Amino acid sequence: MKPLLRPRALVPGDLVVIASLSGPLHAEYEPDLEQAVGVLERMGFRVRRAPLLEVGRRRWWSAARPEEIAEEFNGLLRDPEVRAIVAHDGGQTVFGYLDLIDFRAVAADPKPILGLSDISLLHLALYARTGLVGFHTDVATPGIGGSWQRAPAARRTELEKLYATLLTGTEAIGTLPTGPAWECWRPGRTEGRLIGGVINRVTLVQATPFALPLDAFDGAVLFWEEAGVPASHLWTYLHVLRHAGILDRISGMVVGVPHEIAGLGESPSLREIVLDVLGDRAIPILANADFGHAGPNLPMPLGVRAGLDAGERTLTLLEPAVVRG
């Protein structure tokens, strides 16, 4: 596994670009995108929209052809003025351009790439190929400009401070804010590197040349979430990870908030599904933690060491995601 590659910490006035790394921008969400721009500006950054982030621009389910998205993405990676890239939304496109990414540019000038859903595939592939910390966070439009704006004012303030610290702070964030809905499914404590994302991408990337080596999961804390699939798919994805030997290597698991999962109820519940697949693997499991498609999302920096105490329902980031420039 590559050594962990942390981006340089952002400073006030740095340029953050919002880009269409997967799905298109629909006209009705333009106000949400403007809200996201305002939030990032309040954090002290300059904000620019990448050219493909344009209402009405689309190709099938994507913002553009995979080759066009890759070209724009690589341009942002190579541009020394750009200090962070925030995905506008998720989608179904990243698999189409993984093999077009300029990984040398990532290694030469590592930058935070923020997002979830399809963007978690970018995090996983970049971590596997370069060691880059993955910033599993809310995307710009439905997240920062959407679900954040529907949250209570105190929660919005907390999230803004947390994300700003994630991008600018060179000390460990420490214990993340615990929500009242967090659940302990199996007690215990562990420490390990956070690895994860939306579970279908965690599973599918392992069938590509961009797979994480199995030893990357040794002692890791696997975090995952999912949206818009039947409950049976979750059971299947977890079994794929079992067959791959990944569930035998991890030291703990953090499950996010499921979103629009058909077939979940009293039986099977998500807890039953997870415990059924894990069997007698006695690892701590924290569940219903505040990340996932429903948002707002606590940051889950892929590759960063975390301390998990499922019994106390706490997750602690033990090291920073960025380094002093």
From TrEMBL:
Keywords: Carboxypeptidase, Hydrolase, Protease. The active site is at S117, E225, H293. Belongs to the peptidase S66 family. Residues 191-307 form the LD-carboxypeptidase C-terminal domain. CDD domains: Peptidase_S66_mccF_like. The keyword Lipid metabolism does not apply. Gene3D superfamilies: Class I glutamine amidotransferase-like, LD-carboxypeptidase A C-terminal domain-like. InterPro entries: Carboxypeptidase_A_C_sf, Class_I_gatase-like, LdcA_N, Peptidase_S66_N, Peptidase_S66C, S66_fam. The keyword Cell inner membrane does not apply. GO terms for molecular function: carboxypeptidase activity. The lineage of its organism: Bacteria, Bacillati, Actinomycetota, Actinomycetes, Kitasatosporales. It holds the Pfam family Peptidase_S66C. Residues 16-136 form the LD-carboxypeptidase N-terminal domain. This is LD-carboxypeptidase. It comes from Streptomyces roseirectus.
